[in-house]
Input
Amino acid sequence: MLPANSVTQQAIITMDWTATILAVAGAKADPAFPLDGMNLLPICTGKKKTVDRTFYWRLFSQQNKKLSGRVQTGKGEFLFNLVDDPGEKNDLIEKFPSLLQQLKKKYVKWEKEVLEPQEL
Output
């Protein structure tokens, strides 16, 4: 049961709802089609604390890619703190070059875990 009037600081993304709804229904995703999101039910019910996580996006218009705080476009790479700078105006790439490399490695690992992108 979900506690009334509860609030969480857990960062979520739309894809989490698929995994969460499946969990509520007692169902599982087809292993051939891994989910991008995570099951939020343990957090919603208070059985688990918030978890630190990284969000990834794939954008195929103009071959742009975006992952948590990193943007790559035809103009180069940029690094932003999305909590302090949601408008992505303060590029931190020179201040945190090792973080950029760390995010790149995490992105490569993530891409191996999800389905191949499909052209529309």
Notes: Strands lie at 56-58, 65-67, 70-73, 76-79. The helical segments are 16-25, 41-44, 97-113.
